Batch of 3 targets.
Target 1
Amino acid sequence: MDFKLTKTQMLQQELFRKFAETEIKPIAKDMDEAEDYDRELLQKLQKIGAFGIPYSREYGGQGADVLTYTLCMEEMSKVDASTGITLSVHTSLCCPCINEFGTEEQKQKYLRPLVDGSKIGCFGLTEPGAGTDAAGVKTTADKTEDGKYYVLNGTKMFTTNSGFADTFIVFALTDKSKGPKGMSAFIVEREFEGLSVGPNIERMGIRAASNCEVIYENVKVPAENLLGKEGQGYKIAMTALGGGRIGIGAQSVGIAQGAIDETLKYVKERKQGGKPIGKYQNTQFKLAEMQTKTDAARLMVWRAATEKDLHGNYAPYAAMCKMFASETANEVTRMAVQLFGGYGYCREYPVERAMRDAKITEIYEGTNEAMRMIVAGSMKV
C-alpha cells in the first residue's frame, strides 16, 4: 500500500494550491461579506479545468482520477469553502448523474459543456419537507398524452449553484403510488418556461455559494431528457450522493487544514508572557491534536477516492470519511478560534469564517446521523 501521491498528482496539487492562493484567497472574505460568488472566478476555474477533473477527455474532461479531484477540493476549501461546494455540487452531484445514467445523446448535449466548464450544473433533490428523507419528495412529473413531454410541478430547497447554473438535475415522482420507487430523474435547462429561481437563502456559512429555492411550475421537459428509466430516480440520486460525500470529506479536510495553517502563522507572532504563544506546551499539544485528526481524515478521504477509482464498494468508505472529516473540521476550527482568543471571534481573521463554514459539512449530502446508519448497515449489524 502506497500513501504517496504520483508525480502527476503532486503537480496538479501544486497547481490547485497556487490558484487558490492567488485567485481565490484575496477575494474570499469579500465574497463572504457580500454573500455573492464572483462570476469571473467561475471563468478562471474553467480555464484550469477544475470542473471536469475526473471525467473522460472524450467528453472534454481532464481524464484524471477521483483522488486528484479530492486534492483540488482540499486546496480550494483551505481558502474558501464556498468555492469548494460550488465545485462539489457541479462535479460530484450533477455530472455523475449524466455520466453514469445518461444516453450518448445526453452526454454529448449536456455532459460535454458541463465537464469543460462552459456550463454550470446543480442538483435538485431536497424539498421543504424532504431532506434526509429523500423518499419524501413531492415534486411530480406527469407525462403528456402524446408522450413527448413530462410536466414538472414542485419546489426544491437549498439547490446549490442554482443562482447561476445552466443545467439542473431534478428528481420528481412519475408514479406517486410507488413512493421512492416511483421517482425519476430529469435534465432541465434553465431557460425552460416555468422554472424560477428565488433569491439566495441567507445562511450561517458558505455564504458566497449560490443556494436558492427553485420553483417548477408546469415546466415542460422533453421526454428525451429523462435520465435512465422511469422509477430509477432514487437510485440515481443515492449513487450521486454516495460519490459526493467523498468531495465533502475533502472539503472538510481543506477547511480544517486551512484553519491550522492560519493558526500556525498566528501563534508564531502573538506574544503573551513575553514569548510567542506557540512556544507554550498547551498550544503545541492543541496543534498536534488538530493536525493528527486532520491527517487521519485526509487518509480516509484518499481511501474512499481510491476505492471509487478502482470501482469497488466505496459507499461505506465515503460515509465514513464524510462523517469523520466533517466532525474533525468542526472540532479543529473551534480549537483554532480558541487559540486566536478574542481575535478569533472577529471577522478580520479567516478562522471565524472557517468555523461558520465547517458546520454545514455535518449536514449536507447526508447528515452525519445518516452516515452512521450507512456505516452500521455495511457492518450488517
Target 2
Amino acid sequence: MASEKRVVFRSTWLPWVLLAPQVAVITIFFFWPAAQALLQSFQQSDAFGLSTEWVGLQNFENLLNDPSYLASFKITAIFSVLVASLGIGISLLLAVFADRVVKATLVYRTLLIWPYAVAPAVAGVLWLFMFAPSIGIVSYALRGLGFEWNHLLDSDHAMTLIVIAAVWKQISYNFLFFLAGLQSIPKSLIEAAAIDGAKPWRRFWSIQFPLLSPTTFFLFVINVVYAFFDTFAIVDAATEGGPGRDTAILVYKVYYDGFKALDLGGSAAQSVVLMVIVIALTIIQFRFVEKKVQY
C-alpha cells in the first residue's frame, strides 16, 4: 500500500512567507474595515467625520427603535429566501437539461454562462429598462395581457424586479457547479438504474440529487451571502430601495444611511449587525444543514 506523500518545509519561515500575501489581503480588506466599523458603531460623528463622540450602545438602541430598520429585516429575509431558492432551483433544472443535450452542447453551456460576466449594476439597469413602465418590452407585453406593471408605485412589482435581476445574475455561477457535479456522477449508476426500470425523475431524485448534496449545500451558503451583500448594486440601479423603502434590504440601508443620510455611526452599527447576522447564518448552516449532506 502506497504511503501518503507529505510536503515538509525545511525552514520554519517559508510557510509564513507563502501565506503572507493572502493574510495581507484578508487583513487589509476584511479585518481592518471590520474593526473600523466596530469602533465607529460606538461613536457618533458629524456629517464630515471631523469630530467624533463616544456614545456607547446608543447607535444600536436607535436601530432597535427605528421602524424602518426593523422593516428592512423582513424585506431582506423575503428577498434572500426568494433569491437563494429560485437561483438554486432554476440553475439545477438548467444543468440537468444541459447535461442531457447531445447536439450543440458547447453553445447551450456558453449562453448559460454569459450572465456571470455582467456586472451587478449593469444587470440591474438591464432589467430596469426591460420592465420600465413606459418603454420596457416586458411591461409592454404584460399590458397586452391585461396586466399593468409599474414597479415605481407597486412594492410587489419592485420586489419582483430585483429578485429577477438578482437570480438572473447568479444563475450562471450556480449552473457551473451543478453541471460539474452532474458530470462527475458515474454514468454506470444512471445506466444501471435505467436497466432496472427507474424513470428519469426517479433516477434524478434517488441517485443524482443525493450525490449533488455537497454542491447544493455549498451553493446554498454562497447564495445566502450573495443575497445579503452582493445584490446592493442591483437594488441601487433598479429601484434605489423604493417605492418608499419597500426594497431597502439591509446592505442598501447601510449605504443609504451612511452616504446619503450621513449618519456614520448608525451606518456602522448596521454594518456590524449585518456582519453578525451573516456569520450566524453561516454557522447555523454548517452546524445543522450540513448534517443532511452526504459526502
Target 3
Amino acid sequence: MPEAYIVSALRTAGGRRNGLLSGWHPVDLGAALVDGLVAQTGADPARIDDVIFGCVGQVGEQAGNVARNVVLASSLPESVPGTSIDRQCGSSQQSLHFAAQAVMSGSMDMVIAGGVESMTRVPMGSPVTLAKKADLGTYMSPNIRERYPDVAMFSQFMGAEMIARKYNLERDALDAFALESHQRAQKATDAGAFADEILAVDSRDIDGNSHGAHTADEGIRGDATLESIGSVKLLAEDGRITAANASQICDGASGVMVVNEAGLKRLGVEPLARIHHMSVMGHDPVIMLEAPLPATEQALKKTGLSIDDIDLFEVNEAFAPVPLAWLATTGADPERMNVNGGAIALGHPLGASGTKLMTTLVHALRQRGGRYGLQTMCEGGGMANVTIIERL
C-alpha cells in the first residue's frame, strides 16, 4: 500500500478576536493558505486532486461548503474540488486523516488538508444560536434526551470542570499550566521557532485597515504572571475554569499538503514526515473532553509504540485540565508536550486547530531532531483523533 507523506505544512499566525486577522473574509484567508502550500512545493495547481478543509462554524461567511469556496478564491483552477469537514475541534485533523487515506488508497496522489475559522466574524456557536433564534430546534433530539435524561445540553465548559474534579486539578495547577503555555510560546517566538511554519499574510483589522505583515501570534502574553492569571474571574461560581486557563478565541487558517510516492515523484521534493498512524474514538459526550486519554492508549497499542518512544506531543489546550489529565494518565514527559506553548497562549481557531497543531509538530520535530510525534485533541460530542507521524 502507498504511504502518505506531508511535504508542506503552514499556518497563519493567530489573530485575537477583533484583532489583526478580523478584517479577512475566512474564505480568502483559507485561500491564502492554500496558495502558500502550492507555492512552497512548486505543485502544478491543476494536479491537486482535492481540498479538504475543516470548519466548525459553517454558517454565514463559512457556509456553502467553505472548502470549495476556498478553492474558488485561490489560484487553483475550477477543476479542483473541495469538501468541508466538521468533527468539531478536530475538524482539520480529520481532514488530514481523510487526505492521507485518499493518497494511501491510490485514488488520489496530491491532496491539501487544512482548516479555517474566523471566530470574530462567525462567533463560536453561531449555527446553534441562529437556529435557536429562528426557532428551528436543537440537536438534542428526543432520542438523545431519552439516552441522557439528566443533561439539558452537552457543554464543553461543564466537561472541563468535570475533568478538573475527576483528576483533582485545583485552580492553582490550572493557572500554573496556563502561565507555562504563555512562557513557552513567548520563548519559541523570540527564538524564531515558528518562522518556518507561519505564512505571512497582510494584517487587516475589523475595519479593513492594513497594519503590515502578520507574522506573530497575537494572543501570547509574554508579561503574564500567576497573579494576573489568578485575578481572572471564574466562569462558574464554584468552578475552577477561567478564560485565562482555557484556550483563546482566535482567527486563523492552517494546512498541509499530503502526497503518496507518485505525488513525491511528480513534485520532486523531499517529504517532511510520514503518517505513521491515524485513529479516532468516541467517548462519553457529557464529560466530553476526556476522549484523548483512551484514544492515545488505543493508538499506542495499535502501533506497538510506548509513550516513551514518542519524542514530542501536541495535546490541544482547549482547557488546562485536558492536557494535565492526559499527562497524569499516560505518564508522558511534560517536557515533551506542547513544547512551544499551546492554545491557551497561541489560540484555538476551532476548525483550523488540527492542522495548526500538526504544522507545529512537524516543524518542532525537525528542529529538535526527534523521530516520532503524536497529536491528539478533545472534540465536541466526546471524540478524539490521534495522529502519529515519523519525521523523515
